[in-house]
Amino acid sequence: MANVLVFAETRGTALRKVALEAVTAARALADASGGGEVHALVAGAPGAAAAAEQLGKYGADVVYTVEHPALGTFERESIAATVAERAKQGGYRAIVLGFSTQGRDLGPRLAAKLDAPIASDVTEISISGDTVVVKHPGYANKVVLTLALSGSPVVLSVRPGAFTAKEAPRSARVERIEPAADPAAARVVVKEVVEGAKGRPDLGEAPVIVAGGRGLKVAENFKLVEALADAFGNAAVGATRAVTDEGWRPHSDQIGQTGRQVSPQLYVAVGISGAIQHLAGMRTSRTIVAINKDKDAPIFKVADYGIVGDVLEVVPALTAAVAEARKHH
Amino acid sequence: MGAPTVKIAVCIKRTPDSESRFKIAPSGTAIDEAGLKFDIDDFAGYAVEVALQLNEKSGGGETVVVAVGPDLVQESLRKAMSMGADRAVQLKTDAAPADGLAVAKALAAELKDGGFDLVLFGKHAFDTSAGVVGTATAELLGLPCVTAVSKLDIANGRGSARRDLEGAAEMVEFPLPAVVTIDEGIARPRYPSLKGIMAAKKKPLETKPAQLGVVRVAVQKAELPPERPAGRIIGEGTAAVPELVRLLQTEAKVL
Ligand SMILES: Cc1cc2nc3c(=O)[nH]c(=O)nc-3n(C[C@H](O)[C@H](O)[C@H](O)COP(=O)(O)OP(=O)(O)OC[C@H]3O[C@@H](n4cnc5c(N)ncnc54)[C@H](O)[C@@H]3O)c2cc1C
């Protein structure tokens, strides 16, 4: 029997999808190791503790809450100290978090503080005796590695979307704890937050992504991509490096080997050639649609549904048809 | 007022060309390296360039490149020196370990007393795609750490940087010494000049054993992911739109 600690990520005061996925992964790990408990730790600005109930619904037995105004911007040093302190006190078998921007930063800090072996971006977790075994796609998703981690605890960050959050209701015991390091005393000080596009889901969480490439020709034509995303209603907008290099979209929208790695239910590639580095970021999407005027474009090799045509014509028509289809739903 | 010089360490990794088609080695636990082209990892290459530019701006200073791994990493260290780095340190291991924390321990032991103002890493390496080593090294050294930075400047013992978040970005400030991991878009690595290549041959490259400690992460298996079923073109132009919508509704069930 072994307990598992989850760092449940929030944005503002709302839980992120990956937080619930991490709880589901932790629940399975605790169950597989003889029915341990899942403890979740949620840290954020005042109000973040309200997430406790939802964490219980997805399988957390205990929820630790830490609230402080300075934690609203994910104060890393303080949060790492607090999670590590809890981990030491709780004697957990594993600490599970999301492989998101926050988790990428937090995971290695925890590994170093706890002297714990770490695996990043894992898509499967199992336990066999003293060893935790995980799958982790490396080489920009071109090679799947099975890693064996010895020692306890281990730190595991789960790939967003790889685990499907499942309800496993408990009435979680909620306990308020104090930050282990003053969140207001951070050495790295956030001077300014530059917000990206509002009102769209994040690329890592959106069920649908509409991505545009150089085939759109000029920055203004990106509004066709925006309009198609609007028609789907729940879509995020992504881009190729050709597009972010041109400055049509910020680098944070870039999908691919050196950008975000995504696996939505539906990925619509608009005027994208399908370079290997772009495919590295989206080939695990469930359904891929491609619109490109060149029938030999490599994107068609991975597209479940391809349309050969001019994006300036096809995309507006598709936008209208999708809007129409959703109206009758 | 002459700017004070800075001392920068850049930790680099040698990885295969990302465009390669990979095959699995007979051992079943690694890729088959035969015929692959290796170079400084992309992000680490950006980090080398950033260090050189910061040093050029400060009008002096030193850039030291450090790599953990077998003798093959010397090739990457030489390349970084041909770009302009002043000297290199190889922390020797038999193979590149899969345990990021062990690598961080070896680097921290080497960098601890080096008097560096700044330690740079790529935000992650192509092969392991894990992003552990930079941040873990910072933590072991007790230094402030800023990850995935797309703009970096230093002045008067402080750094300022832009770090990209999901759908937003932050402008941050921090005291030096510090550890920074470098994202794309910050600088294109320069090509070594012939003069640089000649000069690099005479620059010092020191080799010492890596103090990895216990290695607790091992690759049990490496495999190629399942292929996607072959793509299918359903039609041409706007005439194909109704069929696409139908397939999205009835087959893919995403609409
Ligand atoms: C180290 C490295 C890392 C990289 N990382 C990334 C990464 O993370 N993400 C990424 O995306 N790229 C990355 N790249 C770049 C990548 O190799 C490609 O250059 C890039 O993906 C191309 O973007 P694109 O498809 O928008 O442009 P292009 O390759 O120029 O393709 C444009 C496509 O639009 C089509 N087209 C043109 N006009 C029309 C029209 N009117 N209607 C329909 N179709 C049209 C063309 O047929 C063409 O297929 C990386 C490259 C390197 C070397």
| Range of strand content of chain A | 25-35%
Total of DSSP H or I helical runs spanning 4+ residues of chain B: 6
> Number of DSSP strands of chain B?
13
Specify the helix fraction band of chain B: 25-40%
- Give the SSE string of chain B: EEEHEHEHEHEEEEHEEEH
- Average pLDDT score of chain A: 94
Bound molecules: flavin-adenine dinucleotide
CATH fold-type name of chain B: Rossmann fold
* Largest interface (CB < 8 Å): A-B, 98 and 82 residues
Instruction: Supply the CATH class of the largest domain in chain A.
Output: Alpha Beta
Written description of the protein model:
The complex is a heterodimer of chains A (329) and B (255). Chain A has 329 residues and is an alpha/beta fold. Chain A folds into two domains: 182 residues, HUPs (Rossmann fold, 3-Layer(aba) Sandwich), CATH 3.40.50.620; 120 residues, 3-Layer(aba) Sandwich (Rossmann fold), CATH 3.40.50.1220. Chain A is 29% helix and 28% strand. In chain A, strands 7-11-6-1-4-5-12 form a seven-stranded parallel β-sheet, with helices on both faces. In chain A, strands 15-14-16-17-18 form a five-stranded parallel β-sheet. In chain A, strands 8-9-10 form a three-stranded antiparallel β-sheet. In chain A, helix 3 packs across helix 4. Chain B has 255 residues and is of the alpha/beta class. Chain B has a single domain, classed as HUPs (Rossmann fold, 3-Layer(aba) Sandwich). Chain B contains six helices and 13 strands. In chain B, the strands form two sheets. Chain B has a nine-stranded mixed β-sheet, sandwiched between helices. Chain B is globular. Chain B starts with 6 loop residues before the first strand and ends in a 5-residue tail after the last helix. At the A-B interface, helix 3, helix 4, strand 7, strand 9 and strand 10 of A face helix 3, helix 4, strand 7, strand 8 and strand 9 of B. The structure holds flavin-adenine dinucleotide. The site of flavin-adenine dinucleotide has 27 residues of chain A, from helix 6, helix 7 and helix 9.
